[in-house]
Amino acid sequence: KNGFEGFICNDKYEFADAVSGLLKDKEKRYLLGANARKKAEREFSREVYSQKLQAPIEEIASRWNGKYGTR
Questions:
Q1: CB–CB of 42/5 below 8 Å?
Q2: Could you list the mean pLDDT of each consecutive 10-residue stretch along the chain, which spans 71 residues?
Q3: What is the pLDDT of residue 71?
Q4: Residue 15: which residues within 8 A CB-CB, separation 6 or more?
């Protein structure tokens, strides 16, 4: 989310303004960093990815075992 977990900038001037604003506002800098970390942990953690990959891996394994049998 723009301004909540990071910034979406359309050009180098918007980027410079966003960085400048963060440099001037310690509270906003820490809040944005904390929000970004929560998002990363919520969406990109090992646990999340293992849960997302479990079903496709099981599907592939069952097809493999059905076609080639277990060893």
A1: no
A2: 87 96 95 94 88 89 80 58
A3: 58
A4: 7, 9
Alpha carbon distance 26, 18 (integer Å): 13
Beta strand residue intervals within 9-69, DSSP E: none
pTM of the model: 0.60
**How many C-beta atoms lie closer than 10 Å to residue 32's C-beta?**
19
Least Cα distance to 5 among 14, 24, 23, 18 occurs for 18
Q: Within 10 A of 30 (CB to CB), how many other CB atoms are there?
A: 11
In one letter, which amino acid is 70?
A: T
Provide the token pair at 62. 């069952």
Q: Which residues contact 48 (CB under 8 A, 6 or more apart)?
A: 42
